[in-house]
Design brief:
The chain is an alpha+beta fold and 116 residues long. It has a four-stranded antiparallel sheet, sandwiched between helices. It binds zinc ion. Zinc ion binds next to α3.
Length: 116
């Protein structure tokens, strides 16, 4: 069973984001909720190439998910790679589209040939 290796879940609001995501850093996150058994389920996987704190806040008005998890990454490229790994590990329904690399890069997915 693959693991997200993320901290949380935490309440998805501005105060909590500022308390938990204190570094200006690239990173990865998921948004979700707990089911009736208390198990955290997520259905959105995201990444921030420069500032995870700001990216999370930009999502607050766009989702009704009450919880988030996150991890910092060492670089924008690392955040992209982790997003791809999370996508391949956890997104069973292919409703979610494959992560896109920034236009100015030639980064490859570590798990498939989406970018050849
Ligand atoms: Zn891929």
């Amino acid at each position: 069973m693959p693991s997200l290796k993320m901290e949380g879940p935490f309440s998805f609001d501005i105060k909590t984001i500022d308390e938990k995501v204190t570094r200006v850093s690239a990173g990865n996150f998921v948004l979700g909720r707990k089911n009736e058994n208390g198990t955290f389920l997520f259905n959105y996987i995201g990444r921030a190439l420069t500032d995870l704190n700001s990216k999370l806040k930009s999502w607050i008005d766009k989702t009704d998910k009450p919880l988030f998890k996150f991890r910092y990454s060492v670089s924008a490229k690392d955040a992209f790679g982790i997003e791809c790994e999370n996508y391949h590990d956890f997104v069973k329904k292919r409703k979610n589209k494959h992560p896109r690399r920034p236009d100015s890069t030639d980064w490859k997915c570590p798990r498939c040939n989406f970018y050849k």
